[in-house]
Amino acid sequence: MKTATTSEVVSFEDFKKEVINDYKIARISRECSLLGRKEVLTGKAKFGIFGDGKEVPQLALAKAFQNGDFRSGYYRDQTFMMAIGAMNIEQFFAGLYGHTDINFDPMSAGRQMGGHFATHSLDENGNWKNLTQQKNSSSDISPTAGQMPRLLGLAQASKIYRNVSGINQTNFSENGNEVAWGTIGNASTSEGLFFETINAAGVLQVPMVMSVWDDEYGISVHARHQTTKENISEILKGFQRDEGNNGYEILRVKGWDYPALVETYQKASKIAREEHVPVLVHVQELTQPQGHSTSGSHERYKNAERLAWEAEFDCVAKMKTWLIENNIATSEELDEIDNKAKKDVLEGKKVAWTNFTAPTKAEQQELVGLLNTIASQSENKVFIEKIANDVASIKEPIRKDILVAARKVLRMIIKENTRATLATWIENYTEKIQPKFSSHLFSQSDKTVLKSKEVAPTYDATAEDVDARLVLRDNFDAIFSKYPETLIFGEDSGNIGDVNQGLEGMQEKYGELRVADVGIREATILGQGIGMAMRGLRPIAEIQYLDYLLYAIQIMSDDLATLQYRTAGRQKAPLIIRTRGHRLEGVWHSGSPMGMIINAIRGIHVLVPRNMTKAAGFYNTLLETDEPALVVECLNGYRLKEKMPTNLGEFKTPIGVVETIKQGTDITLVSYGSTLRLVEQAANELESVGISAEIIDIQSLLPFDINHDIVKSVAKTNRLLVIDEDVPGGASAYILQEIVENQKAYQHLDSAPQTLASKAHRPAYGTDGDYFSKPSTEDIFEKVYAIMNEANPTKYPNLY
Fold first, then answer.
1. Alpha carbon 144 to chain centroid, angstroms
2. Which co-factors does it depend on (predicted)?
């Protein structure tokens, strides 16, 4: 007899041992679900979503899952995580309680609700671990089908490692032998991201196995409302590969049939791993014994007939019957396993709760002692003692309880000698606790962008002016030569060298896998980049125009931007997103939705270079760091003239650092990107009427002016105008808050700080559409003049 995971012949006793161990894992997982639900209903946990009913197929998947493989999954895969040894009982409950210590909740250090799983790709210093020597799970997210685009990239990485020479595969791949395994609930296959990913994987022919857990419901809504023909594999039959066409291998299997599941997943693994062909596994006739989540019971939406069927075809119960019928174990032996699972889960839950509450109880006692000491010296002794007693009486305190009490007492002793002691305690406590909830939005490793240093471009004395796109193109050439792991892909990026010729000739030189055309599918372009970046490659995902970024903003916001944060620094995806935008023509090609972008993707750097040399410098900087970033090139700047640097691939634009591009004394003008050229023209015209304007190029919106250089300018000029082509209240409001509030520029102002933005509508078509929709040189001139008129109406009389 052969085992599920090898081709070696083993004895019946070894087979029996393996299968019974699978049953033990299934029973433990089921008991975790049942007890986990009770913990939510008693209030110890806030929310519960569990993997009951999906245990047996996940065991089969785990058998085919090898070191180096990656999972990108569904928030019910707890049995799988247990089966690959990536989660135990205590860790399951630590996640349910939201334990903020990553040693107890390795999935997210309490930042995500239970059911969201991850392994550690990085050590505590942010360095890559050897991913080929462990089983890997990319960090889950809640948005349904949101795991799909990333899955595509995880699979594509294997194709790159297998087919592109010169890449150092150490820590990341064994010649592209790894499979990316996706899981999803059947109802979530209704999402566009699912279909977009399925199509893209079929086109790319990547080693991806996609499992659909089909229990006929999406929350309370039956499959007849979700899927045509109520059957996802039926409607995807057109993707089935045949003799003359690439496509998918599509497999169907019953979710309660243990031996068939094992055989199916071994077949799927072999096809994907050896042939690099995607596989869809439709796992049917599954159940969901407790309903969708603790927010509702399935008895509310399933009829008696369905409930009876689910009881009979429960996959764990069916596995137990199979074990007995095939003389692998007796009923008594399995009952003993069931009872032990209950006992072990209960004990593990208790240990997890003790570990979760112990630090907070110690902090509770510390504060109570301090408050009693303060009370003994206070005029408000009675009130403070009551607060101290109230805190002490909380049986299961949370940190909010502690800090609320301390801050209320601080108000009572504001004029007393003990105020400083309590204030210091509160500040120290907050400094200690806040990072447990807020750290790792950005990298905290030695490769953070904040440690990058500027390297100026150098020029020959005879440097000629060239089309700016050539600076970008030749710098990309230097990048691709210097970094074999770097690749770029997007709509029209390959054969024609992008719509603005910034990649002219690069595909011919570096091949179709490193400089690639892709279909019109922005979300999965992002997903390709995220997944490949998570596996050690350095992808540049190109979105043709800034407006089209809206197709991908959900993936950027929910997945990429939160990755380091939601794993407490244990996973990263240093993806570079390249796009172009700002001024052009018409509603759909000239938007500048920067306010929406910067507020949706905190966790990704947003860089807005004013020319192509600056943009090239950003790419050079980013490839030496380990953080994701969006680079917005100026769409109307490719044909403008710039000098060709001699140190291509080496010069670096600093991130988070502004640049003063014109000195002035009367007013500080702050802007970025294409608009700066109008600002410069207006500033020259203002000189003719005696107004000296200082111009500052922001360069990066996230991070923003880390050296606080703008406020130094305002301290000199005492006036501030922010010019932006986003809608009113968009990026200009963010910029103004950064300068006036965070940099405290208000104390230097002699005039009200102002903004000049575009109209609230989308830009209209044509040159006149641009002029009447976005700030013009005349708008900037007259806005500055009006500010100076208010300050000195005699010197600057009214224009109107």
1. 14
2. thiamine diphosphate
Residue 734 CA to chain centroid, in angstroms?
22
- Residue 7 has a pLDDT of 52
Per-residue pLDDT tens digits for 105-134: 999 999 999 999 999 999 999 999 999 999
Residues forming the active site: 589
| CA-to-CA separations, 101 to 107, 140, 357, 367, 469, in angstroms, rounded | 10, 18, 12, 21, 49
Least Cα distance to 536 among 154, 201, 139, 152 occurs for 154
Beta strands (DSSP E) in 196-248 are 208-213, 217-218, 221-222
Is residue 281 classed as helix, strand or coil in its secondary structure? strand
3-state SS class at 158: helix
For 445, residues 6+ apart whose C-beta sits below 8 A from its C-beta are 125, 126, 127, 569, 626
Of 71, 63, 52, 50, nearest in space to 21 by CA? 63
Residue whose structure tokens are 């040693």: 103
Confidence at residue 1, expressed as pLDDT on a 0 to 100 scale: 42
Paired tokens of 99: 């334990």
Interval 223-275: pLDDT, tens: 889 999 999 999 999 999 998 899 999 999 999 999 999 999 999 999 999 99
Peptide bond into 703 cis (omega under 30): yes
CA distance linking residue 287 with residue 255, whole number of Å: 9
Sequence-distant (≥ 6) Cβ neighbours of residue 247 within 8 angstroms: 202, 239, 240, 241
Place of tokens 């009951």: 52
Q: At 72, which helix (H) or strand (E)?
A: strand 70-72
523, with CB counted inside 10 A (0-12, 13-18, 19+), is buried
Contact assessment for residue 613 and residue 457, using Cβ atoms and an 8 Å cutoff? yes
The type of residue at 406 is: A
Per-residue pLDDT at 296: 66
What are 45's two structure tokens?
């946990």
- Please tell me whether residue 242 adopts helix, strand or coil conformation: strand
d(CA 343, CA 340): 5
Residue 190 and residue 224 in contact, taking contact as beta carbons nearer than 8 Å: no
- pLDDT 10s digits, 573-594: 999 999 998 876 788 888 889 9
pTM of the model: 0.96
How confident is residue 2, by pLDDT bands cut at 50, 70 and 90? very low
- 244 phi, psi to nearest 5 deg: -105, -5
